[in-house]
User: Fold these one by one.
Assistant:
Number 1:
Amino acid sequence: MNPLIPLFVAIPLAGAFLIMILGRFIKDFNKYFASLILLILLIFSIYSLITTGSKLSLYKVGGWEPVNGVPIGIYMVMDGFTVIVLCIINIVGFLSVFYSISYIKRYTAENYYYALFCLMVAGMNGVVLSGDLFNIFVFLEISVIGAYALVAFGVEKNELEATFKYQVLGGIASFIILFGIGLIYWKTKTLNIADIKASMSSGYEKSFYLFAQILILSGFGLKAAIIPFHAWLPDAHSSAPSPISAMLSGVLIKAVGIYVIIRLFFNMFAITEGMSILITTLGTLSMVIGVFLAIGQWDIKRLLAYHSISQMGYVVLSAGIGMILISRGEKPEVAALAITGGVFHLINHAAFKGLLFLNAGAIEYTIGTRDLHEMGGLSKFMPATSATSFIASMSISGIPPFNGFFSKLIIIIAAIMARFYFVALLAVIVSIITLASFLKFQRYAFYNKTDAVNERKIKEVPFPMIFSMVIMSILCVLLSLLVIPGIRELVLTPAIDILMDPSKYSSIITGN
Amino acid sequence: MIAYWMCFILFLVGLYGAITRRNLIKIAISLSIMEFSTFLFFALIGYIDGGVAPIVDPADPVKIYVDPLPQALVLTAIVIGLATTAMLMAVIIRIYRKYGTFDIREIKNLRG
Amino acid sequence: MKGMTTIVKKTTQLIAGMVFMYGIYVIIHGHLTPGGGFAGGVILAGSFILLILAFGSDFVKLMKEETGSTLYENLAILTVLLLALSGLLLGTRIFFMNWMPKGTLGQLISAGMLPLYNIFVGIEVAASILTIFLALVIFKEEMKE
């Protein structure tokens, strides 16, 4: 058993508590210790990415061996797809916490900030590593409680309103998820994802599981802000401190929302055509409506938040296309291509959306406003911020040679090959509107000449912020290498393999 | 079977309350109703006719026990529910201090 | 926060000790009877909350108490985590492994590490519920000014 797997949860938890104890007595302990913890996790996750490959490692917590082939303990599972999401969480987490070293100085109670940050990371790592439904719920709650508190960190009117909305909708989502888990446990008498799959194959009550599927989809859909459930996202993501926005938008909605939806619907439930069409429709709606809602925004962070909804739409849509093709049993290579596009876009979105929120934070840090009307001509004073945000904007709009182009291209090609011409057309149109929206952002923030900005006091942000932004922008360029054959086999293909074969995950874990 | 349906109806009552009420405290109470209906459902699915509490007694081993797992799950979920409720209450108190009201219609700084 | 009348104070004096002892009983019998760390911890916190409600406390003292309970909470949960990690470092090298001798079923000192987990979880829950209570009271006290 790989001893790294529980450490992904144990280290940030221990870090959070140590910060709360020692941070009281030692000055500046909190920020450097939190960075150190996230750096260790980053090294562990990259090591796991290199060593895991296509194998699936299983960790039985407490050493509880299965009895008569029925798993009874808590299982933690690490496979190709898990490792990718782990890498996203810990890379964006490290860069955000490093960025916070200078950014968070203006708030009081830094100890709480770093402790909650570590808790949030621990929760997300737990969600992606957990192999049973109830632990997904527990870790999800750990991470979202951290997120609720961090969204409210400014304790001003806007933050409190946003966090109240987030908490009520998040609470409703949690109980819907818990109810769905209860239904599944009632029928299958097990909570282990692999074991549920195995016992579902013996007797499948279609209408009962359809109800459970809809509960689970709406619960995690609320957490992931897919379009009918999106109301909390723009408020929460724009009110949080910027490094937290980068974490929420870049990682949290993926780790606790999209990841779990993809994992459960591909590897646990039997893939049905109706459900896959529903998921594709939700994805398409998110993609289109998200971008239209983003057009009219003048607050940078709200604009970015609406684009998150739209970009997550691409991921859900491509996963849905893959599911439709798998359920019909036709063209497996196109299904694999669609899922590749989705997973690849998931990675890319973490890089560019994280970077964009860090840029927005840098702008807010310097000139103290988020309104696009009140900025302009910043490129002269903030060259690093300007250059990195240009890379991120081009990347999210799908301009070659940046990473966003390749993932969107794969998704569109897959949609055309699967004969969803209308969806492919919509994807192209949404991409063009995204480009327009980000050109507006670039022009008003960095190039437009106005006298609204007081030129004397503007200077470039401190080193930790620049460092994080530059590393993220390098990632934006480098990640496009993942499509090259040779590198693709190392990272993307193991994840696609585990998702493509519906029974592989369960048969490896239960061992039959 | 009727008990399971009652749980679901209680869940829907909570959901209705959370959606339609305008007072922050009442929304929090509605969320708690949803929470506890779910816990009740979990306790019900572990019940076995004629079963006793799952405490192993070495002197008298042959008995039918109810399923202990849902009880453990409910206990964990209660702890989580405690944390979320406390968090929600803290936010509500803060909101009351900033806005001076519990009415959700008057709390609308964020729009668009 | 002001205290309550003499009747309440006297009754609380009589009851609080018993509540406290009962909480400890529930915690240390956690592996034998229903209850355990969480239930016992809530009862423990209840006795403290009773005392604070009955006798009242001024703002500065409340802040000091909250600092102390936060510290205890963090230390206790850190100990639980260290106990879990001890399974990873010692014995069979598995996270959360119960590596201590199990003893005989039904004895007070048995079940390996479970009583230890129960005790520290009990302290953690008692401290955290007290912290929540104190934090909410402090909010209320701040509001008056």
Number 2:
Amino acid sequence: MTNFPIIAVQSLIVKRGKVTVLDIDRLDIVPGRTLALIGPNGAGKSTLLLTLAGLLPATSGGLFFHAKPIGDRSSLDMLRRNVAVVFQEPLLINDTVYKNVALGLKFRHMDARQTAERVEEAMTNFGIAHLAKRSAKTLSGGEAKRVSLARAFAISPGVILLDESFNSLDPPTRETIIDDLQKTLQKTKVTAILAQHDREETLRLANDVAVMKEGRIVQAGTAAEVFNQPADEFVAGFVGADTILEGLVMKSIAGLMEIGVNGHIIEASGNYPQGTKVHCCLRPEHITVTRAVTGKTSARNIFDARVEKIVRQAYFYKLILDCGFRIGAYITLPSFEEMDIREGSLLKASFKATAVHVIKSGA
Amino acid sequence: MDIFLQGIIKAIELLITFDTEVLGITWLSLKISGTATFISLFIGVSIGTAVALNDFFGKRVVISIINTGMGLPPVVVGLFVTMMIWRSGPFGFLEILYTPYAMIIAQAIIATPIVMGISLAAIQNLPPNLRLQMLTLGASRLQMVWVLVKESRLPLLAAVMAGFGGVISEVGASIMVGGNIKGYSRVLTTATVMETGKGNFDIAIALSIILLLLAFIINFMLTQIQQRQRPQ
């Protein structure tokens, strides 16, 4: 398969009134891959999806589908027939599940036999074949979401766009639907673009990530690149490096730096020269918390830490630790109980030099 | 109380004896109001949907005019239609004054804004993204509009009921443009007015009961359809 972009965006500007809501310099959608657009509310994720679907006209710039410019009526129709959108709400019509899934095919005047084949396959992929004759209005939120996904996949789109599709679902339902979506994406190899809030879902579903802020893409790359090497403080904060410390490079030798942070020294991998002002980003899952350091450890950074705050989360606790600078760390429920951690407890926090992602200040 | 009792007895008598004059009047009422409602449905739904789905300068003013039209006084419509089709009026050459055709036109003018206003509100009340969803599923504009109208079928049935209810029970316009001519343009409401004026309360009550029954039966049937369509 060629890596020629299925959708390409060049110098795209979308305005609402006089306000620029989207300003994308360049974005290439690679066929067969899943791209997640992440960013805070109002970053322009949904606007970009609507523009890519040909539902929102661009004020200027170019949108290309298979290298063909999109602009006139016929090219817009061609784009819309090749792109499926799954909105946040299921938007089902007042008819049976089968007829809902078959709707896109009916618009294409597909014959009954082919329609039945496509609909059955899509319903099976999303585990709703047994609901075929049910009225769509009697479905639960999760079932309705499955129907809307099956309806989008039934038309065999070139690209599928999902706009924060799982927001309103409860966690177990969400989990199983994402699982089915993941399998269907792998099986069908359909190119997908998701507007996402959730970090974990992004990592599960996306090959590539584009981080958006105020209508612009501030960083784009593979999921690993964006999550592990955020380009700036904003991206770092958004992708979950919730400890971001200001520091100054004190020493830099052979790929290892000593960074002064609030009177303490943090060792980190990198090559910024001495005297560079930097931000050290740490992810809570990269920090190990113990009562005492026993035996050998490969962690180059070990600090005394006092527990400032304990936040109970679904499957673990998050500890806010004061090490002379404040960091966040995760600990599993059994470890938390075993170590009898309370607010004010004194612990050791350790992390490797490679766990510290260093960004040059003002980058 | 005698007067009511006599009226009810007379009504039952007229009904069970299949009085030809009453049957004729009833049938004509149904034909005229049914045709007018059908015409108003066609025009009202089309324009109501078009206004709901398109953004244009002055849209709010247009919606306000439609909503005002929902309460159009039948006598004003009667006056307007009479003037239009008066011998010396712009459509006088049609020579339809004091005919059932004139009554259909007047009743359609009364019912159209009712149907239009309800359809407009019904389409506007659909989820805003439903329209975009249909387009991204590959619907042409016509297919998209058809789906939206189908999705609004419950309020549209309400529009039919309101439109039909409005015209079958109006008297002002019908008497002005139809003339209440026996066996030709006499309908239940105009006949009731005439019999009341003559002091024939028994026949007037009988006609009123038939009118009420008719309105009830039509609305009952439409309600049955509406409730069957409703999501459980």
Number 3:
Amino acid sequence: MLAPLSWLKEYITITLSPEKLGERLTEVGLGTEKILHENGDTIFELEITPNRPDWLSMLGVAREIAAIENKSVKFPVLQTDLKPKKSTQLLPLKIHPNYKITPRLTGIIINNVKVGPSPKWLQDRLISIGLRPISNIVDITNFVMWELGNPIHSFDYHKIEGSEMWVKQAKGGEEYESVDEISYHLPKGAIIYEDSKKIFDLVGIKGGKNSGTYEDTKAVFIVVEVDDPVLIRKASQALALRSDASAIFERAVNKGGTIDALKRTVDLILQTAGGEIASELIDLKEQDFKPWKLSLRLDRLEFILGIKIPEKEVLTILDKLSLSPKLVKGNVIECTIPTYRNDLQIEEDLIEEVARIYGYNNFPKTMPFGQTPVVTVPYFRDYRKDELVKRLLTAANFSEIYTYSLISDQDLASVGIDSEKVLCVDNPVSKDFEYLRPTLKINLLKALANNKGIAKEINLFELGKVYMGKSLDNITETYHLAGISNTKSYIEVKGLLERLFEEHNIKKNPSDYMEVLEEGVYFEIPYSELFEMTEEPRIFQSIPKYPPVMEDISIELPSETPLGTVMKDIKEQSTLIKEVTLLDQYKNTVTFHIVYQHQEKNLTTEDIKPIREKVIASLEKSFSARIK
Amino acid sequence: MSMEEQLMNLKNEALSLILSAEDGKTLEEIKLQFLGRSGKLTLALKDIVKVPVENRAEVGKLANEVKQAVEEALERQEGFVKKETITKKRAAIDTSIPGIQPQIGHLHPMTQVMLDVVEVFKQIGFQAADGPEIETDHYNFEVLNIPKDHPARDTQMTFYLDTRNSKVTPGEVILRTQTSAMQGRVMQKVKPPVRVIVPGKNFRYEQVDASHGFEFWQVEGFCVDTHIRLTDLFGTIDYVLRRLMGQDIKLKFATTNFPFVEPGVDTYMECTVCKGKGCSFCKYAGWSEIMPAGMIHPNVLKAVGYDSQKVSGFAFAIGLSRLVTLRYHMDDLRLLTNPDLRILKQF
């Protein structure tokens, strides 16, 4: 909201500079986003939190400044006593209230008004907060709303057919044209005013074209009401229609402020548009909306804040906020909460009041004392393990990326996944971000493509969540670890994963998680499943005391013999064979390097001979190998 | 020539040869010439048996001294010659040529900052937890004192999951809008004392710009014990942010309203890019909102089964994405999800 300094000064003397005032306002909760200097005035752009409808008015802001500056607010003088003169002919209006949806309806009828442009001072006020002047009556209702914080609406009395009206909820689908000539279909449950023939107001949100105040209006029915915040919010959301009034109503309007707002409006109308009061004061309500009591224990205040603020200072702060504090029985302060402070309901709310005016930046800083929790927290996650995994991948020249979880239908199609089987959001920001990724592949492929032309060697990985489940009844949300490389060979990537698995004691074959794609070598590992199991402690193996014996064997194999199987077969021939590596490969001839080692003695040629023979026999038998 | 004279002559001869030697090979030859199996000194030493018995001890002592002197001289000269060789070798290298770096990948800046955050909190007794991103309205809002149709929901526009073919009531399952959703999940399962942080991704229905994304990262944290005070919250925020962003950063606190805290606190950090002067990154405010927080609302404590008269606590959320961009002076949040190697290689 915009609050011009000149307007605020009508209610309060301000001594702080605009910059200092802005800082203080932000500290106490009235977020000052910008301070603008325009046309010789200073305008504060304020961000109003949902708990403070009262701040959506100049008087509300002035009250806060009063607390900061330790001054009092000058409330506008209200002259009219809202009683019709005895000689005036009264205009009838029968109202059927509905307290469940509109707990209070305050109003009055003024006859013989002259609708026309408003005086310059009034127009200037509205222009200064970004509103467009319309006519004296409408401008006054807007002005008083922004001054006092209660929305006000003026109806053309003669357009209420049959002089009878009902407060109702819309059935849903009814047509409605607002005062600014936009047609709506009303959502079910919206609060409406209806006369014998038509709906003439979308209450609390926007007035109707068929009941508004125009040049030819002679009598006005001025209404200040209290509406149910949830109903206003629902209707305003359903219509995507927000108004200054709905913003106040959905935060819960000041239930005790309707009479004052009406008086102020009537005063200004009589002054600027003439006319005379033509009805008794209407104030339909089931209960009195009176201030309530709220207690604050001084020891509780100290307990929560961590500092002792002297009793006298606490009383001063609460008094400055117009909360009428009284010290009762020792160390309990009883406050009387004005009806515009609907946010003050529990003791903690009062604790915040004291703390914020005392100034958060005046507090000392301490660290929590007491016991450090030793029990492993539910949902514990070992980020150190993630780090070890990621560090190993970076050591192999893979760089880490973070990508979006939300992807498109087309993305899924690009890797051949049917979007019908993928979780999706009802209200995506766009078609590009509609589905929850069931794989990290799509984003890694895109990332690889994005880097073409930027780098020759592209190795990327991501540790991120994937979301599985055909419907919400069977969701699994787990971490996957995926990577892609456009230059490393399959065997290199496999080796990297072998090392990764070894370090984390995972007994799996990396090839099960690898794919060869047109773009390069890709892997995607179910990380949560494989890595989040408890690791067995590592057991140290003593260094062999006796030297190994090494030899190379060259054999010819039928083409397409899987060499890994061959090597496994060699190794299985004796426990003394510690290592078999592929040394060389040319056409169908391969050379293996074999390491023999005994833990307790030196191996001799005689020891190895039978093993070699066994190896060769097995290779000939199982793989039709020919020894070279 | 007496044995003594012979030994002294051999010593002088050897030393002069050693001192004039300029490379290791010459020294090897000299060593062989004097100390080898049939070296001059070796042979002379064998002749000691010929010395009369009464002189033998004295001559033997001298012989040992000579041998030792020659060995020491050889060793010294070897070291000297080696040094010379290295100097020559080094002189042959063009050290101005840039080094060949090992090919090592890069950890994402988000990971680096997240690990720092986890570490700093670990030091003050906070454990890290991780929770679901597909969350229920119950944990994301209701437990946190944000009933349906509360205006506070406006600031957290929500993605709702498609409930077709499931038993789930529409609107009940969402993508979490805040890691605070984990407050209820954790606290329902464990009694105080509790000190937990929850790093994670959140989702909000927002139009994307330089400082907003519909997916962003936060670190939630909360601490509940028999006596946790507002000053503890201020102290913890101050400690953590100074450890993460440098001890000279400027911080200020302001009142704010979140339904799940009372009193509510917002933390602003002076913009690291412009040092408070105002720039496009801090929207010309000079300050960045970095860590909303507050004392946990009694309704939340009640909802998780705690007695708000017996325990108190604080909660906070660090805007992790924002922290990363502030630390590295990145002017656009979208850089964090851009997998461009020219960005990644800087970290």
Number 4:
Amino acid sequence: MIRITPTRRLALAALVAALALPALAGRPAAAITPEEIKARGKIIVGIQGDNPPWGFVTSDGKQDGFDADIARLYAKQLGVEVEFMPLEVNNRIPALTSGRVDVLFATMAMLPERAKAVQFSKPYVANAIVLIAPKSVEVKTNADMAKLSIGVAKGAAQDTQVTKNAPAGTVIRRYDGDAPSIQALASGQVQALGGNIFYLQRVEQARPGEFENKLEFQKLYNGACTRLGEKELNASINAFIDRIKADGELQKLYDKWMKVPVHQFPDSLDGVPFSAS
Amino acid sequence: MNYVLDFTPVLDGLPDLLVGCLGTLLLALGGMAIAIVIGIGGVVLRDSRYKAVRWAVKGFVELIRNTPFLVQIYFIYFALPLAGMRLDPTPTAILALGINGGAYAIEIIRGGVQSISRGQVEAGLALGLHKGLVFRLIVLKPALRAVFPSLASQFILLTLTTSVASAISAFELTSVAQRIESESFRSFEVFGTITLLYLGISWLMMSFFSTISARFFSYPVK
Amino acid sequence: MGVGEFLFLLTGLKWTLALSAIGFLCGSAGGLAIALMRTSGVRALERLTGGYIALFQGTPLLMQLFVVYYGLALGGLHLSAWVAVSIGFTLHASAYLGEIWRGSIEAVPRGQTEAASALNLGYAARMKDVVLPQAIRISLPATIGFLVQLIKGTSLASIVGFTELARAGNIVSNQIFQPLLVFGVVGILYFLMCWPLSLYGSHLERRFAVATR
């Protein structure tokens, strides 16, 4: 049972204990090379677990999706096993920077603010951030968002976009992940939803015929992420992406998941270098 | 590669974090108020003349005490709209906290009520006191005094549980912290700092309870 | 909900059980050490463990998991999510069990310790053969109560991205969009794990109350 009277001594002791914790930190996190991954025989891939068709866990517990297939191809090139670690939207970057995973194939939109924290590869797929709202509501401009309550996945690209584009005072609700945010729309807890090009498909399953894509905020490219400064791994992934673009493997995955021709990718993006310097 | 701790985003976000603390306090106090009402009401109903009511209270207590708060709050938030009940995240969180704390409060207060000997109640009634007055003065108040420490520690637990409300996007400290984290990617710094803020909040609550205890539940009875 | 979805929930349930078991077993070892230090009579140890308990009882489990999850990795330890989360629950359980057992060690009448000392029993024998057997009996209802709390607490591992029962529920709910059904089933599964323990705990409590009357 917790004591009712806080004693100053206990308070101090707890504070000391709390301050001692960060002392654990500050030491080097992982730096890993493709050679080390090969030697280990396994690559640990951070991926999304609940964002079909990008990355999701099927009901028999298997990791699947576009990103999963890309990661498997890369592992095949290295000749190693893949270990998937499904991550919440919001802990993708922390999982990488803190060394829990070797690489992210996790619907990582290539954004300048993220590029300060992680190293992006060349883009391997295109995406767009959209606003989904009921057909019956007129949403033509960003200003129209003010009358809606909008759900987003915390820390996802749609969070950034909706937050940036919606007028001040718009009700924006942030959930732990894609699944709860879509659930919030489906159960009517929010009227609109920030998401990517595949969200509508899923919303259709839950509430058929009621919603449509209203606004497109941003065209995005997704890349793989490694830790800043890990040159070899970044170079290896870029070479891999060039190869699958050239030999038609990427088109096969596009056919399987997106059902469109492979997008044209830009050679550079403002504020997002593709190669480690 | 070296990871260097950087607390700048946390310091920049400090005003927001403090507002978040207020959100946490609001959830905690709101939840406690509902919990007390449910607790006292439940104790009365648990001795109801009707078997169905007694069993309903028992069932409620067992159900809530043996399922995780996270599941309860998801259930209330995502499932109840289907039944036509739609509440905003913050009221939902307060309600869920109140229901959760209420189930524990029923058990705790009941323990206190049972410790009051039958003779005291009979003595009160013999003095011609009204039944309600007997319950309030002879049963409830001494019972609350007896169980106040347990109740207080349960409410500290409730205060800490408010962090889970971030899962349904209620406004409180954890949700503010997660926003700062997702902008700065400084998870360890952010969560380390708010852990200390929570420690502060629970001490504040403990002092609050010891003040209440000294003011209302100390002998001689006022 | 089809058979596939239900089996997926059961896979999550398996992890919930594993996590609870690890947290409880390792937490018991840690808790015992903390309880012994807290009652050792050595002031520095008592303060240190007192601080540890106050820290873990004064902060949310969710924060403890976050800090351990990210902190261990920054400290250069590369552990799987599973191990990191287990360490988080172990630290958490050690604090709560340590405090529960401290209380029950102190509840063993002082005369017992004095008698044991008079019989020239050393600290180890005194604790192992005299104090702890009684203390454990006294602590059983509270210990079981905490075990229930721990099982429910493992649901928070879902927020750091660990696929146990609660997160499995979330994923399934998002595949079939029947939250009422899915969270209902998830709730029932938790209930089936916790309720028998709760009943056993209150049974012991009643028996103990009768025995000491």
